[in-house]
Amino acid sequence: MIKQITIIFLVFCVSYSFAQNTYYFSSSEGNDSNAGNEGSPFQTISKLNSLSLAAGDKILFKRGDTFIGQIVVSQSGANGAPIIYDSYGTGDLPVLSASDGPNGNPDPLSTIRIIGKQYLEFHNLKIENARFDTTGTDDDKSFGIYIQSFKTLPGSGNFEDAVLFNYFRFSNLVVQNIYSVNSNGTAFNNIRTTGIYFLDAFVNDVIIEDCYFTDIERCGIWLRKYVSDAIIRNNKFIDLGGSGTIISASKRVLYEKNLMRFTGSNSDPRMTGRGSGMWVFGSDDVVAQYNSSQHARGDGDSSGMHVDYGNTNILFQYNYSEDSAGGFCETLGANDNIIWRYNISVNDGTLDRGGKNKLLWVSDYAFVPTKSTNVFIYNNTIYQGKDYKNVIGDSEISLKAASLNFMNNIIYLEPAAKLGEKAYLFDVNTPNFSRNIMYGGTIKVNFKNLDATKIIQSPLLLDPGRRHYSGYKLVTGSPALGAALSFTEPSFPLAGLGIFSAITSNATKDIYGNPVNLSGATNIGADNGSGEPSIPTGVTYEAESGIILGGSQINCTNGSGGKAVNVGSAGQTLTFNNVNVSGTDLYLINVFYANPFKSSLKVTVNAGETESIILPYSDAYCYQSGIPTSFPIIKTLNNGDNTIMFEQGIIDKIEVVSVNEATLSTKSETFLNKVEAHLEKTIISSNETLRLIINKEIEYKNTGLYIYDMTGALLAKKDFYSSEDISMDANNLGTGVKIIVAKVGQYVFVDKIIIY
Q: Taken in order 544, 550, 555, 560, is the CA torsion positive or negative?
């Protein structure tokens, strides 16, 4: 009986000590004299700051409302009972802003201020702080959430020897419009303006996930000093003046599945205009994986991601980098055990806006110049051709290290691209270059000669130039298949421990998820698959090889073979009698035509029913240097020879390929360098799902998908307000050629699809 009473008493004490209070706030409906419940909410930030919060309490802000003032977090939660700041109701996220505009009232340095507190959570809030009115100091700084401890570094120099503050959670936050009063005249490295900022924080156990950062003077997240065991994942950093994330003077950080686009932006004149998607400085044990960075800009460090100086045990794997001004694998000085593996780089390195343009970049830059040791760059795929402004690659090579290992990489250049010709620096004490594929363009001979086992053959990539990592798989017959050097990989010491429980020291898979074991036979490059079927071009039949009745062969400067056939009038025909296929099946027939106006092409297969197909216009007449345009049609062909007859068109050639073998391009289309969209497939069966993949600079736009038949009749539509991809079942759309129109905000995407 005594034991039972004791247990009941203990349970009562625990429940009592963590009793939860929930306080509701509404700027539009509340009053600070209210009770603070949902039916009678408080109103102001001043009221919030006056509350004596306890562990387990919740503070909820009404969606759709705006709250002005600085939140001063003056109480901590407890283990198992954090203090939670969240939203309630429906509609847009509540806006928290320390600044109320240029009205003469001093604007606080941050919207949420946390000094020496712990066990805190922040969810489902929009945080802003565009400062206009000075407080008299720190006019060149501004923060959304500011975390500091005012602790001092122990004599050991290891911040973890101090007592740390624990447990911080941030999720589903929109952090935007963060600007200082005026940073003109402040050196770039002294501009600190950041969305979530940790300074002398002395904190442990941090998770920042599913947040959206945009329109910020410099940085999205900055672990500036003394953070350990942090996970930063599934966040979007879009259009920032500096970097998406900076990790400095911290230990054990997992950075994964983040999207960084247009970092180093200058879209607002207050932005710093320089920044890599993410970088690490003076930190230990960091893993960055499954991240994507596109269009980083600036005249300094502006790579997709980079390793600054003074780091140990940094692993970058399974990342996609595209069109960064700096380049790929930027690694500065005084580092040890830096690993770049199974990443894909597409058109990195540019001179745009003063970019460093160093595609391959390892330097000794540090407080005291010091070459890095044990730099490993292996099994990456690096492509360079034309960037998104159609500028052909001409990048530098700059490599300076104590020891550098460069193995099993693919470097693929388009014919006119250059690497290392503009500038070349090689100063490595102990180089190890082995089994790389170096193909295409003009690659500096001195660099190529570093690898005595190199392969100078096309790696046969699936779709080189595609602005998506899916284009860099290997196809059947690639010389990279099974040809990699087998070696003992460098170790990541904390693999399998703590936040790295799912991280393996050796690579066990590639960027596509295929299994990997580099102690045995593997592929060169980032793809360890067995080889994809190549994108078929089909069997080509030149128009001038067909039987022309009533029409004529004409010169066509940009046509295949410089010829085309004009059978544009009624009764004129072009017939192919020897279209040979290996089995009775559905076939894709790509018709290349040069009609300079909207027209109706008649097609008859094997003397069957004649079908009229409306063709969009091509760009000009052949004699005006017009370029033939292709239009796909689907027809059933029989095993052996088939007859295909065309009437009322200017035909350059046709290509014939089996639908079942067709692998379709998923190249992104770009609109004003702001919006990208691509169809997952453009040929689908009626029992499949049509998907439009949306990648936008500015998320959360009105999005719509509209499907029309060739007469212009609307078959289906889907409108919604989201940042997600669009999916639509094809079973009710009918078969044949359709026109798809997608609207993303003010941008429009148009393409043809075929349903069979």
A: negative
CA 568 to chain centre: 46
The token duo for 658 is: 């089996």
The per-residue pLDDT for 676 is: 52
| Whether the predicted model's global pTM rises above the 0.85 cut | no
Q: What does DSSP say about strands 611-615 and 336-341: parallel, antiparallel, or unpaired? A: unpaired
List phi, psi (to 5°) of 110. Answer: -140, 160
Question: β-pairing, 552-555 with 71-73?
Answer: unpaired
CA distance 566 to 553: 6
Indicate the residue type of 128. E
**Start-to-end C-alpha separation, the chain:** 76
Q: How many CB atoms lie within 10 A of CB 741?
A: 15
CB atoms within 10 A of CB 581: 17
Residue type (1 letter), 331: T
Q: How many CB atoms lie within 10 A of CB 21?
A: 14
Handedness of CA 392, 396, 397, 401 (dihedral sign): negative
Q: What is the distance between the alpha carbons of residues 183 and 192, in angstroms, rounded to a whole number?
A: 10
Q: What is the secondary structure of 124-139 as a DSSP string?
A: S-EEEEE--S--SS-T
Backbone angles phi, psi at 396, to 5 degrees: -90, 160
Q: What is the pLDDT of residue 535?
A: 64
pLDDT digits (tens, 9 = 90+) for 548-566: 999 999 999 888 889 999 9
Of 228-232, 297-301, 593-597, which range is least confident? 593-597
616 pLDDT higher than 70: no
Residues 309 and 282 sit within 8 Å (Cβ to Cβ): yes
Which class for 732: exposed (0-12), middle (13-18), buried (19 or more C-beta within 10 A)?
Answer: exposed
Tens of pLDDT along 390-433?
689 999 999 999 999 999 999 999 999 999 999 999 999 999 99
Cα-based distances in Å from 29 to 61, 281, 410: 11, 47, 61
Percent of the chain at pLDDT exceeding 70: 89
- By CB atoms closer than 10 A (0-12, 13-18, 19+), residue 136 is exposed
Are 672 and 741 in contact by the 8 Å Cβ rule? The answer is: no
Tell me the per-residue pLDDT of 290-342, one tens digit each, with 9 for 90 and over: 999 999 999 999 999 999 999 999 999 999 999 999 999 999 999 999 999 99
User: Between vectors from CA 429 to CA 418 and to CA 337, what angle results, nearest 5°?
Assistant: 90
Mean pLDDT of the chain: 89
Backbone angles phi, psi at 89, to 5 degrees: 90, -165
Per-residue model confidence as pLDDT tens digits over 659-682: 655 433 333 333 223 345 667 777
Residues 464 and 530: their CA atoms lie apart, in Å, by: 18
| Pairing assessment for the beta strands 585-593 and 58-62 based on DSSP bridges | unpaired
Task: Identify the CA nearest to 225 among candidates 161, 159, 305.
Answer: 159
Neighbours of 748 (CB within 10 A): 13
Nearest residue to 410 via CA among 400, 419, 402, 398: 419
Coil, helix or strand at residue 392: strand
Residue 78 in 3-state DSSP? Answer: strand
Q: Strand 203-209 relative to strand 227-233: parallel, antiparallel, unpaired?
A: parallel
* Amino acid occupying residue 408: N
Measured CA to CA, the distance from residue 616 to residue 669 in angstroms comes to 19
pLDDT tens per residue across span 85-102: 999 999 999 999 999 999
Long-range contact list for 452-461, CB < 8 A, 24+ apart? 453/485, 455/479, 455/480, 455/483, 455/524, 458/412, 459/381, 459/410, 459/412, 459/524, 459/525, 460/534, 461/381, 461/383, 461/410, 461/412
281, 308 contact by CB (below 8 A): yes
**Is 60 exceeded by the pLDDT of residue 12?**
no
- Examine the pLDDT at 598 and tell me if it is beyond 90: no
